[in-house]
Amino acid sequence: MEQISLKIFQVKAGDCISLKYKGDDEKFHNIFIDCGYSGTFDRTLNKEIIDIKSKNERIDLFILTHTHQDHIGGITKFIRKYGQDDIVDRFWFNGGRLLINFETSNKVSVNQGYELEKYLIQTGKQNVQKIIYGIENYKIFGAKIQIVGPRIEDLDKFLKSWNKDYSILSEKITTNMCDWNKEIAEFNLNNFEEDGDDDNKSSIALIFEINYDNKNSRKILFLADSSPNVIAKNLSNMGYSKENRLKLDYVKLSHHASKGNTSDDLLNLIECNRFIISTNGTNRDKFPHKETFARILRHPLRDKKQKVEFIFNYDTMELRNIFKKHEYQDPNLNFECLYPKKGVTYYELCL
Q: Closest Cα partner for 12 from 41, 46, 49, 47?
């Protein structure tokens, strides 16, 4: 296989990602980012875990970006199936009682987040005082993981809503209006209304980077459901600007390409032509939003000579009908859409 295998699993309108890469020890290592819904676990991530175990590999890092069920719902099945197997070296999860003194809290919930916290605390898989935020960076077998969100103040706001009953909540609705009938040229991109959901703003967002022989470098931005303005501020603090943009191989678009999670301020700071979209196109929020694609394609700093690739982890009639025939043929737009192979439950990128 190639040195990196990135799989974006089909978990309806959720996120579930596996990243396998050859480390500096010449062995393959595995990072998971989210696990989709409970109902999608068996046909997606579970098969990946079975394959990992058959090769005597481990899950070096399991990241649960935030508490929405389309990202964390499958963790209950994971704990029940593999909780005693000790196949995960490290978890990252900013849950409620990991941010507050859980020993003095008497509040109870039945959501997956609390179940995961209980598991982490009992097994010692995470230091109770450790939270993931800011612009810290970590190294793991030759790879660098640069955190670019959330901010500590966003986690503080998130705590205020932690005790809501997530057992009856599938996912927040940003908008129920479908904008696929509009032309790319018709969107008014001068105004931008950011997704104001505190839970989404608590998302762990990161850059995965690895260099092979100082020649074959790979850099991927995973945005979960993060706030674009938060990411833009952190990238700016890291020294990136319109004149010094962050060059990326791939960007996993935030919040399933919702129009409230990709801003011009963020696009000003990144240089990328390949964008990953994790959603089936048949969800109640009508994700992805065409406005997001229009903002990317019409961005003033974009090099129109470079073709943009929109990479979907589903191949559905709805997704194939987002763009009109003449838009595909317009040389000023210069883009294409890529879909997974038939019969598989993921889109795989081999790098």
A: 41
Two structure tokens written together for 3? 């040195």
**What's the full length of the chain, in residues?**
351
Instruction: Domain of residue 334: give its range.
Output: 4-350
> Which CATH number does the domain housing residue 318 bear?
3.60.15.10
Cα angle value 335/8/224 (rounded, 5°): 85
Query: What is the tally of structural domains in the chain?
Result: 1
Taking the complete model, does pTM exceed 0.70, yes or no?
yes
Helices and strands of the chain, counted as H and E runs: 12, 16
Pair of tokens at residue 80? 């029940």
Strand locations in 86-142 (E): 91-93, 137-140
Residue with tokens 């470079």: 306
- β-bridge mates for residue 31, sequence order: 19, 61
Residue that is written with structure tokens 């089936």 in the block:
280
Asked if residue 339 lies in contact with residue 312, where contact means CB atoms within 8 angstroms, the answer is yes
d(CA 215, CA 230): 31
Residue 96: what are its φ and ψ, rounded to 5°?
A: -60, -55
CA proximity to 310, closest of 291, 284, 336: 336
- State whether residue 347 is helix, strand or coil: strand
DSSP 286: -
pLDDT digits (tens, 9 = 90+) for 146-185: 999 999 998 888 876 665 544 333 344 344 578 999 999 9
Q: Which residues, 6 or more positions from 232, have their beta carbon under 8 angstroms from its beta carbon?
A: 263, 265, 266, 268, 269
Single out the residue of 171, 126, 161, 130 nearest to residue 147, CA to CA.
130
pLDDT tens for 53-66 read 999 999 999 999 99
Residue appearing with tokens 């010692």: 124
Question: Within 83-197, where are the H helices?
Answer: 96-99, 112-123, 152-160
Are 233 and 205 in contact, with CB atoms under 8 Å apart? no
The tokens for 32 are 């998971």
The Cα 120–Cα 75 span in angstroms is: 12
